[in-house]
User: Fold this.
Amino acid sequence: MDTLDPKAMVRDGYDRASHEYRGDDFDFARSGYEHWLRRLTTRLAPGARVLDLGCGNGIPVARELAGAFQVTGVDLSSVNIERARSLVPAATFVCADMTQVEFPQASFDAVAAFYSIINVPLDEQPALFARMHEWLVPGGWMLAVVGRDPWTGIEQDWRDVPGLGMYYSHADAATYKRWIAEAGFVLAESGIEPRQGNPGYAVLIAQRGN
Ligand SMILES: C[S@@+](CC[C@H](N)C(=O)[O-])C[C@H]1O[C@@H](n2cnc3c(N)ncnc32)[C@H](O)[C@@H]1O
Assistant:
């Protein structure tokens, strides 16, 4: 019997369906990304160093940030990283697992993780928040879009690609709030996404204490 390797499934899923997930362009202005990214960027000084964790093809988050900030994107999928390098040449991109990648302590002013921690196995997520905390300067900001209700499983025929699976792992919003507090963050703001309709995700904006 095959043993599930969640990271391999996520990497393969995005390598094979990168374009099905996200085109080279995106209507940012009318999206939830615009609302939440602005909630983060209004807290940052021009030129701030921002880490886009699970950056995908760089559209829309890295591209929007790169106009005013120094952006580093990390993603597991080499196809996404290749696309990001060409779509957002002003940013720096690293192909790596966010639970393993190394950055010096206090090397970023902000970390944004839009819909990417949702693919990381739950038992690795608390340590990931601790790493995000370490990478930030004191007073640095974190934004995470994470699951809202507990669920770990596989979506079959993901993005309508026959036979392709995508792995997800979500805790509930209260657990995320506890984990980020245990990592040393102070919650500044929380919300849901989509903000109308059927909210499937929790959004947390938190600050590293001193
Ligand atoms: C749903 S997409 C979101 C992409 C982008 N943040 C956005 O909102 O458009 C999830 C992304 O996270 C990446 N990802 C998932 N697990 C990862 C991990 N352990 N390390 C690095 N990237 C990961 C995937 O490759 C994928 O590009």
Observations:
- The domain at 6-208 is CATH 3.40.50.150 (Rossmann fold).
- Residues 15 and 79 are 5 Å apart (CA to CA).
- The mean pLDDT is 96.
